[in-house]
């Protein structure tokens, strides 16, 4: 705090400087040290902030009088937090005037409203559907809250029977000039954003915005074959543009919910089906579930767990094309846990034969190892 420079000294004005003198001094310094023009120059940034702080205090009558009486101590609490903090009234207006920061600081409302036509925002709607719906396609009814063109003023923002008036700041030119030392700088008029006109009697239904918020119901045809991440673009179904500008687009983003039985990869589906030991060993015709119902599948004798069979044409339809993917069924042999007396007897009989088979096999492999 001890090294803090005097605010008047920073701005290079006398202690009796008028509001207008302070403002011009600040404009000149802000212009000179603005970060946009001095990128990476820490010294300039420091100067810029210093000037902003000094101006914030001195342009406020109450703070200025406290500063005059008590120096930095009189305003330290507010001045320390001044940069970018609330209650920092004038600065954004001035920056907006100087550098076209109007957009960032939302300067609407100062001296009338802007009438620039702007394209409406794009909207995104996330739609979750089932795998079955993705396979057949569907017609979805979406309810979308969005800004629609105000019918009262037909999107113009002016109350019916009134017209926007010529901007007084730029006299309708859309450009303003101001003197900056030896230079004359010309830039887009911040009051009317270069259109030369401002709305002086705003439409009451849309408060001069030309748009009102409404929930719109939209019917969307979702084609068969969509997958998670598929995006449908509905042209001009986004928000209406400001002041009669063109509307944005609506993007419907598809999310296909996980399915209990099927996993999807591209146009193919994957599932698994349990078979009994006897079916696997002897071969069988088994019933497999498909997305549409059921289909039969022949498995050969000696089928092992993990063997995958293809059921042609039971996958997902090709999006925007012909044909369908396939269904791949992985077979898992189920080991029984509860046996009836008869099953147990048969399995014990089987075990005796199999053990002998396995020993014969091992023996023959050994013999082969030795003589092979
Ligand atoms: Zn309106
Ligand atoms: Zn203007």
Account of the 3D structure:
The protein has 372 residues and is an alpha+beta fold. The protein contains ten helices and 16 strands. The chain is elongated, with a radius of gyration of 39 Å. The chain starts with 6 loop residues before the first helix and ends with a helix. Residues 150, 152-153, 203, 205-206, 210 line the site of one zinc ion.
Task: Describe the secondary structure blueprint for this structure.
Layout: H1 7-11, H2 19-33, H3 42-58, H4 61-70, H5 72-80, H6 89-99, H7 102-105, E1 113-114, E2 123-129, H8 131-136, E3 138-149, E4 165-166, E5 175-180, E6 183-188, E7 197-199, E8 211-222, E9 231-234, E10 250-256, E11 263-265, E12 268-276, H9 277-282, E13 284-289, E14 294-299, E15 308-311, E16 327-334, H10 341-371
Parallel strand pairs: 2-10, 12-16
Antiparallel strand pairs: 1-7, 3-8, 4-7, 5-6, 9-10, 11-12, 13-14, 15-16
Helix pairs in contact: 2-3, 3-5, 4-5
Bound molecules: zinc ion (2 copies).
